[in-house]
Amino acid sequence: MNYYDAIVIGGGPAGCETARLLAEKGYKVMVAEEHRKIGEPIQCAGLVSLRTLQAATISVGIIINQIKGAFIHSPGGEVLSIRDREAYAFVIDRTEFDRKLSERAQCAGAEILTGVRASVGEFLPYEASVRLKADGGETTVKTRLLIGADGANSRVARRINAPGAEDVIRMYAAEVELECLEKDMVHIFLGREIAPGWFGWVIPVDEKHARVGIGVSGGDKHPLFYFKRMMNAHSGVFKGMNIVRGTGGVVPIGLPSKIYSERTMLVGDAACQTKPISGGGLYLGLLGAGLCAKVAAQALSKGDLSSEFLSQYQRLWEREMGDEIQTALAHRNIFLTMSDKEMDVLIHFFRHPLWQSIISRYGDIDYPSRLAGILSFAGPWAEKFFLVGCRKILRYCSTVRA
Ligand SMILES: Cc1cc2nc3c(=O)[nH]c(=O)nc-3n(C[C@H](O)[C@H](O)[C@H](O)COP(=O)(O)OP(=O)(O)OC[C@H]3O[C@@H](n4cnc5c(N)ncnc54)[C@H](O)[C@@H]3O)c2cc1C
After folding, report:
1. What is the pLDDT at residue 377?
2. Residue of the CA atom closest to atom 17 of ligand 1
3. Which residues, 6+ apart, have CB-to-CB distance to 306 below 8 Å?
4. Residue 52 Cα to chain centre, angstroms
5. Is there a contact between 94 and 46 (Cβ–Cβ < 8 Å)?
6. pLDDT tens, 117-139?
7. Residue bearing the CA closest to ligand 1, atom 29
8. Average model confidence (pLDDT) across the chain
9. DSSP helix/strand/coil, 244
10. Looking at ligand 1, which atom is closest to the CA of residue 171?
11. Ligand 1 pocket, 195 CB below 6 A?
12. What is the C-alpha separation between 185 and 68, in angstroms, rounded?
């Protein structure tokens, strides 16, 4: 029976990066990926920051387009246009991105198995067993450490009873043929009717192609229902659009209180390492992979894979991203209380050149809390903060009195 230092379930970016870092330290690592090809099928809009490309140390051959600004459409038709001289985001070939990360992990010595569905077997005193199912049959392998990088619907997370996400955003997305008049500007669509609890997007790939999508939080209707509603409401932007390939997926958001357990660590979407305002998970997944691999390597070298030792990973993650995620969640909670009318007022307010220049100066897609902090002083947003804060205090006082 094969024996590994670490088995990573899931060959997405977070899993492959964790595997690479451990393999580079000389550990025997295997990645099990259920799809036959790494990076396929794509469930991603592929919009990332320069920081993400730097974290992955990949840029050659994957950047398809550069984004310099955004049109933010309010529900009532107000449009806020934010434009920079420099590119602040990049549209990438996500399949190629995943492939390059897996090739690098392989070059470092990690074994990558594709077309293999893995499930956690038993946890024994000195090892865990993992069942691998492929066309050829089923085998069992053993590992000192198990890493769950199996995405948003992580079975590994469920197996260790990890706390769930604070919210799960359901998405429909598509690659489309669409005339993109300004190929360096994305469109964002807001509104409770169009995208309850989230937003819709158009990300140009070139002058004639784009990635279009929508996310919703809660509700019982399929995201495709809202997608069609968004197209009808903004028919000018979507005129002549032809869907080439539709896809979907979910993005979990939150800051779970436990992303480890005895002999087990979670990374990437499985650990909710995503941005609560945009849903982007590539940058945070790579950061998470770095921290996961660091603690995993120490645990393997000390031979201590106890829950207590692995809890360092949780502490490191919270130190790195905890404040950012909490602040983003707080702003998101305020956004969730806003009516369509209030969104109109807010977008109208931010159209003032002063606010436009502040947004373009402090906007950062990886760390939006700094900008959000500044925007909290803007009239309509500050009012919301005050009202939501007062409501919370009143609720607290009434529960204390009861
Ligand atoms: C519609 C949509 C658009 C998005 N757009 C963006 C964007 O523009 N920018 C951005 O940064 N992020 C975006 N994201 C989020 C991003 O795609 C994820 O955060 C990222 O893919 C997470 O990487 P991961 O490695 O944690 O998980 P994944 O990429 O989901 O990889 C997990 C892998 O585990 C495999 N797996 C699962 N179970 C098993 C099993 N039992 N055995 C073997 N293999 C298994 C899966 O097949 C999968 O390949 C988007 C998400 C969606 C749904």
Report:
1. 72
2. 44
3. 262
4. 12
5. yes
6. 999 999 988 899 999 999 989 99
7. 12
8. 92
9. strand
10. 1
11. no
12. 6
Residue 378 has pLDDT above 80, yes or no: no
User: What are the beta bridge partners of residue 114?
Assistant: 33
Beta-carbon count within 10 A of 125 CB: 5
- Give the mean model confidence (pLDDT) for residues 25-52: 96
Handedness of CA 113, 116, 119, 122 (dihedral sign): negative
Nearest-CA residue for ligand 1 atom 16 is 281
- Cβ(148) to ligand 1 under 6 A? no
Task: Quote the CA–CA distance of 12 and 147 in Å, as a whole number.
Answer: 12
Residues 394 and 308: their CA atoms lie apart, in Å, by 39
User: Which is higher by pLDDT, 398 or 221?
Assistant: 221
Model confidence pLDDT, tens digit, residues 83-115 = 988 999 999 999 999 999 999 999 999 999 999
The CATH number assigned to the domain with range 3-44+94-165+256-330 reads: 3.50.50.60
Q: How many CB atoms lie under 10 A from the CB of residue 352?
A: 12
Tokens of 115: 């077309």
**Quick one: pLDDT at residue 374?**
79
Question: Is any ligand 1 atom within 6 A of the Cβ of residue 274?
Answer: yes
Angle, helices 379-401 vs 340-350, to 10°: value is 140
Indicate the burial class of 376 (C-beta count within 10 angstroms; 0-12, 13-18, 19 or more).
middle
39: helix, coil or strand? coil
Q: Which among 220, 240, 238 is positioned nearest to 229, based on CA atoms?
A: 238
Cis previous bond, 41, omega within 30: yes
Residue located nearest, by CA, to atom 52 of ligand 1: 44
For the chain, the domains span 3-44+94-165+256-330, 63-92+167-253, 339-401
| Domain 63-92+167-253 class in CATH | alpha beta
